[in-house]
Design brief:
mainly alpha
Length: 96
């Protein structure tokens, strides 16, 4: 999932490139873990010997930037609505 396709008009752009990169890397990691083999990162996982996707129920977010957490959760929950996202900073939980 490309970050640009997941963002909507409620998010004010431009975002710093480092923020966009961190969010995109996080989405790539989630796809690596949970994507089927027809996805780019799911296929990469399968080539490493793990063809079946893992079922991830909780994702820990441990960045100090609340805006980054908010953006990551907003974008990731669109693709992964059943996952719970937990903040280590203040204990916030965005439920699935």
């Amino acid at each position: 999932m490309k970050l640009a396709t997941a963002l909507n008009t409620s998010i004010v752009l431009p975002l710093p490139p480092s923020t966009i990169d961190l969010v995109q890397e996080s989405l790539n990691e989630l796809e690596f873990l949970t994507g089927n083999v027809s996805t780019h990162f799911g296929a990469m996982r399968a080539k490493l010997g793990y063809p079946e996707p893992w079922k991830i129920h909780f994702v820990e977010i441990s960045r100090n930037d609340g805006k980054l957490e908010e953006l990551l959760v907003k974008v990731a929950r669109e693709k992964y609505p059943d996952m719970d996202f937990l903040s280590l900073q203040d204990g916030t939980r965005w439920g699935g």
